[in-house]
Amino acid sequence: xxxxxxxxxxxxxxxxxxxxxxxxxxxxxxxxxxxxxxxxxxxxxxxxxxxxxxxxxxxxxxxxxxxxxxxxxxxxxxxxxxxxx
Length: 85
Known about the structure:
Radius of gyration: 19 Å
Mean pLDDT: 90
CATH architecture: Orthogonal Bundle
Distance between the termini: 37 Å
Low-confidence stretches: none
Number of strands: 0
Strand content: under 5%
CATH class: Mainly Alpha
CATH superfamily: lambda repressor-like DNA-binding domains
Number of helices: 5
Number of domains: 1
């Protein structure tokens, strides 16, 4: 996931909860301009984790860290497909 995906999730959830940008910004204790920039993807890389966390908390969301599955190496792939030859 990247910041643009996160911004889309935030905007979608805000709309689903029928909150205005001003209402969510007030609940998250951030400026409306910060929220607008985040949702539009402009300046979204400058927003800090604490602000993201406050926005998500205000929306009833949280971040989970999940380990991505390891991609197989070339030698592992060769071993997997060795039977096909």
